Amino acid sequence: MQTVSTQLIIWIIGLPNAGKTTVAWALKERLQNVGHAAVILDGDAMRVVLGMETSHYDLKSRTENALRIGRLAAMLADQGIIIIVAANTAIREVQEYHRQTLPGYFEVYLKSDEATRRRRDQTKQLYTRYDLGEISNVLGLDIPAEEPTAPELCIDVSDGVTSVQDTIELILQQLVPRLVQLAKPTAS
Prior knowledge:
The protein has helices at residues 20-33, 43-49, 59-77, 92-101, 114-120, 126-131, 164-183; strands at 2-3, 9-13, 38-42, 82-86, 105-111, 153-156, 185-186.
């Protein structure tokens, strides 16, 4: 007996400080606790890994980075690993391309209000630096964000709406049929 090589790429989309990375790590832990191998491809970490940490954040550069992450996600998913991508990717062209080309693509949109994102912005200080004129090309501010048109899940993660744990439960409820298929043995 051999297991089905069904692929699963969970792409978590949201604006800066929506909680993508936090949700990705919590989801990975839950998946691993029930025996699924999973890896996270975080947008910020991928810029460093790919040697692009000093690259531009304009729309063209963001698009190229998201497409690179997608190609890596497909390669890893092809090896039977569940991929969790946490990246802004609020670019409709990229969302549609990934939906059409990535096997097992499952899109989760973490929607949040600007007040919540600003409150959470303690580390990178993107919003403060933007307000002071120190940086530009911030998705959702001077680069328009395009909400996904057909995510498998849209979860409001604004303060007081949906907790991280509740977000994970909502994602897992939708993923159960796919997770069962991933572990299902087939005759050789």
